[in-house]
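Lab notes, practical 5.
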Amino acid sequence: MRKYFYLLLCLAICGCLCQGIYSQRRPTLTREQQMALEAARRQAESERQMAYLDALAKKKNTRSDDTQRDRTPPLNKETIDRIRNFRRIDPAEQAKYAAFLSGEHTGMLKFFPDFNCLTLEYIRIDGDCAASVPNSYAFSFRAYSYADDYYHDIAFKPDAIVSTGFYSQGMLVSLGDVPIDKINTSSAGIKYLMDFQPDLNPSAARKTAARLAEGVDSGGFKYARSVKTAENMTYAVRVIAYRNGNSLPPLSDSTTTMEKRFMSLAYDKREDLIVVFRIVKLDASGGVTMLWKELDRREAPKLKFAKGESLSDIKP
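Output from the prediction step:
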C-alpha cells in the first residue's frame, strides 16, 4: 500500500496548489477558486477509491508504464515550494488581461511540458528534466484543476498540446492569431466542434478517435488530438468525457485493472465541453502561460459495450 500512500500524498499536495491557478479578483476566494479546491478534493477522493478497490481485490498492480508514471513518489517541501513558484502567474501578466478575466468562465493557467522525469522507480534530473516541474503538465477544465494522463482535458507534451484522456474524445484546433475575447460559439473554426454529434457506441467512437489521430480537415481548419504550440496563437478544444453505460461486476479477486479503471469514472466529472484558449507567453524554461474561456458545457453521453464485449478505451 506504500505506492498508494505516495500517490495520495502527491494528490493532496496538488490539491493545495490548485487554489493558485486563477487570477485573484477579490481578496477572498473567487467562485472559480472555490470550485478548484472542491475539484481537487473530488480528484483525490477518486484516486483514494481506486486505491481502495486495489486493496480489496488484493491484486498485484499490473498497470502500463504510462499509468505508472503518474504514481509518483512524495515531494519534499523544497520541491513543493518550487512547484508553487513556477505555477504562480506574474501579477503584471495578469493585469494585462484584467478585463478578460473579469468575465464569467475565464481563467489564466500556467503549465509545463511532460518529459516523463518522475516515477516511483526513478527521478531524472538530466537534460530537459533539469527544469521539470512535477504534476504541472495536464489540466482538467471540467474539474478546474491540474490533472494526469487519465483525467486531463489538455496535456502539454514537448512542443505539442494533446487531448487524450481516458474514455474521452478530444478534438483540438488551431484558430490562428485571433483575439480570444472575440471568440464565441459562432466563430470560424468553432462550428465543427459545436456541430459534432457524439458517438453512441464504443465501435463508432473508436473510428472517430482513429480519424482524429490522423487529423480531420473541415472548413479550412484541421481537428486532431494534438496541436503544435506557438506563442500568440489561439486554440479550441472539445472534450467529450464519456460516461460508462455498462453495469460492472462486483469487485473480486478477478476484477481486472481495466474494470477498476471504469469503476473510477464514477468519481470523475464526466462532461462534454468546449474551451477556447490562447498561449500568451512561452517561457525560456518551457513553461506556457495561457488564457482560457469556456464556451459550452453539457452532460456527456454514455457509451455502452455490447454483451460479451470487453471493456476498453476508445482510442487506438
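Observations recorded by the TA: The chain has a mean pLDDT of 79. The chain has nine helices and 14 strands.
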